[in-house]
Structures are given as C-alpha cells and as structure tokens.
Design brief:
By secondary structure, the chain is mainly beta. The protein is built from 1 helix and 19 strands. Strand 14 (about 155-165) and strand 15 (about 170-175) form a beta hairpin.
C-alpha cells in the first residue's frame, strides 16, 4: 500500500503472469496490500488464478486505488474477487478513483471476472479500465455495477472502459449514473429504471474472420460485434443476480 493521507488511501497492486516453460503460468509479481490484497488460488490446467481480497472498506471518498495486470506471451491468467466492491462516502468529500490497467501479449489469455461494484448512497467514484491487447491475445472481461444497496439511492458512479487491440481502439465507452450525472441516465434510452448494469467483452483472434452475429439476448441484453476480433454484450437488470445470469449466458454463447 502506498499510504494513507489526509485526503484518503493511496494503493497500487500489481500482477505479472509469465509462462513457466512447463505448460503452466508463473506469477513472478503478486504485490498488493491494504484495500487491494492479492491471493493466489489453486491453478486450473495451465491457468494461474488470483483473487483480489478487499482488506479494507472502500473505496472511500478521496481514495486513489490502482491495479495493473500484465500477461506475457504464452501465459494464462484468471482474476476474480472474493466479494463485491462497495463504494462508500468518506470523511473527505472528494471523488474516489479506481484505475485498472490490463496488458495482454500475443498468445496470452486473460479472464478478468471481478464481483460487482456497488455504488452506495453518498459515494462518488470514477472507475477507469484500460485494456491493451496484442494481435493474438485473448480476453474475457466482465464489469457489473449495482446502483445502491437494498432500499437505498445510489451514489454517483462514472465508469469508463477502453479496449485496444494492436494499438487500435475497438471500444471506448463511459457511463455516468446517480446524483450529478448528466440527465437521462435513468431514462428509457439508458437504464430504463433498472439498478444493475454490466458489460462483457470477449476478444478472440478467430473473431477477425468469423465475427459473432449481432443479436438481442432476451429483453435486457444485446450482443454487438466490434470493429476488430471482439464482441460486446451490454445488459441491464433489476438486480445483481439477474444481471450475472444474463452475462453468464452470453459468455457461454460466445465460447461456443
């Protein structure tokens, strides 16, 4: 952990995954503490698995958290989290930031599947996720946001997701919700009254020649091929459980 200041916590966690030369994946760097503790869990085949364990409450107002993961050629990494992340109001009234940077090399694979991010009443959080992939990289990335706990109005939550393949942008989107967000975020063109929203991004080299077909998945989700070897699923739902079900079904469909 970088430290605690009068304006909040500063913390930066790092993961580096490399092929071990025996068909598996080593983790020469697994560095995180404070609110971003990292734990290696049982590997599956040649895939290394890491859990992000929230050792402190937050992010709180004024916190600055960052997590970077680098997956080298031939490595396979799966990252999840032990529980949902809850953005909370802090003693300072400043915005909290949570910045995620993911780099995946040619011939490497990353599954980035954290639990939900919950925007509690009175909180103010800006999340950025930037993904850089080489031409032959593979990615499965899931983001889920829940606006408010049970019976609670949400805080302000802004989330930006950027994905680049071989230096070319295939996705750059931002969604801002809650008090102070641009008007219309809860209207029929965006969340339509729902309180859970999520995205699933799948990048596979074979999509360059055989992109998945654009389609509506039920009433609250859509699959959209992107301009590159990638596909995006966007979904809204009344709650986190139904959102997870929608995105899980979409992930299974894209794995066929």
């Amino acid at each position: 952990m970088d430290g605690v200041t009068a304006t909040g916590v500063r913390a930066h966690a790092r993961i580096v995954a490399r092929a071990d030369g025996r068909g598996g994946t080593a983790l020469p760097v697994l560095d995180g503490d404070g609110p971003l503790a990292l734990r290696r869990t049982r590997a599956a085949g040649g895939e290394a698995r890491v859990m992000v364990v929230g050792a402190m409450s937050g992010p709180l107002g004024g916190d600055r958290l960052a997590l970077t993961a680098s997956v080298a050629e031939g490595a396979r990494l799966h990252v999840g989290s032990a529980a949902a992340t809850i953005a909370l109001p802090g003693q300072t009234k400043g915005e909290a930031r949570y910045d995620v940077r993911l780099d995946v090399a040619d011939g490497a694979e990353l599954h980035w599947l954290p639990e939900q991010l919950i925007s509690a009443g009175g909180s103010d959080l800006y999340v950025t996720t930037r993904v850089e992939l080489a031409t032959g990289a593979r990615l499965v990335l899931r983001e889920e946001q829940v606006l408010g706990r049970a019976g609670e109005q949400p805080g302000r939550l802004t989330s930006r997701l950027t994905v680049r393949v071989a230096g070319r942008p295939v996705l750059d989107q931002e969604l801002s919700c809650g008090p102070g967000a641009p008007g219309g975020w809860d209207g029929p063109a965006v969340l339509a009254g729902h309180r859970a929203v999520g995205q699933l991004v799948v990048v596979r080299p074979e999509f360059a020649d055989r992109p998945p077909e654009a389609q509506v998945l039920g009433e609250c989700a859509a699959l959209i091929p992107l301009a590159g070897p990638a596909a995006l699923v966007s979904a809204v739902a009344p709650d986190a459980l139904r959102l997870r079900r929608l995105l899980g079904e979409a992930q299974a469909l894209l794995a066929e």
